[in-house]
Amino acid sequence: MQQSGPGPDNPAPLVVAVDGPGGSGKSTVARAVARRLGLRYLDTGAMYRALTWLALERRVDVEDAETLSEMAEQVLLCIDTDPDAPAITIDGVDVTEPIRTRSVTNAVSAVSAVPAVRRELVRRQRELVTAAEPGIVVEGRDIGTVVAPDAQVKLFLTASTAVRALRRSAELGEQNDDAVARTHSELERRDTLDSGRSASPLVQPEDALVIDSTTMAADEVADIIVARVTEARV
User: Fold this and answer.
1) DSSP string for residues in 130-163
2) pTM for the complete prediction?
């Protein structure tokens, strides 16, 4: 008889939870760690961004909780968890690139604050985590507290708002002073919204290792995390 569920002969997949605010380096670092350890990779924020993109495309008010909740339950979301080529489609449309635009970024906090949206996407995220072999690095804002509270390794990445603004502006290809200042303001606004929402707010898990990446390169942060995972596996 085939054994189901974790146990001595069927251990639970390794889960590495990486939380933190926007621009803290989560995506770059999480993908690097997944590649080094031969694990899968999941950007949970991309799922909220995809739903936000679709809402904007359909001209749905991002404050319309009822419609957004229905969309979350009905849409077909496909996630590629390959750290070398993470991709996401929603209702058959590849939105891997479009979800990174400023318009989506500025609207996603409102969408992700809807409790029913979070419940549905967290359910889907947990399915992906459970199915990942031999394990997965998951990044977001509520991984260690909500999505995978039993993760074997938990990290919380942070950095100064000024540095985060520079990083995010570079991602957008907008590095002049005005663009950086605008991004700085937008990050502060999103931090406030994400930390203050009632459903799965952005908080630091009590048992997470906190890494301030303000003056660190992504490879240095990845080194620390890989060492932490190695310790946890012993």
Assistant:
1) HH-SSEEEEEESSIIIII-TT-SEEEEEE--HHH
2) 0.86
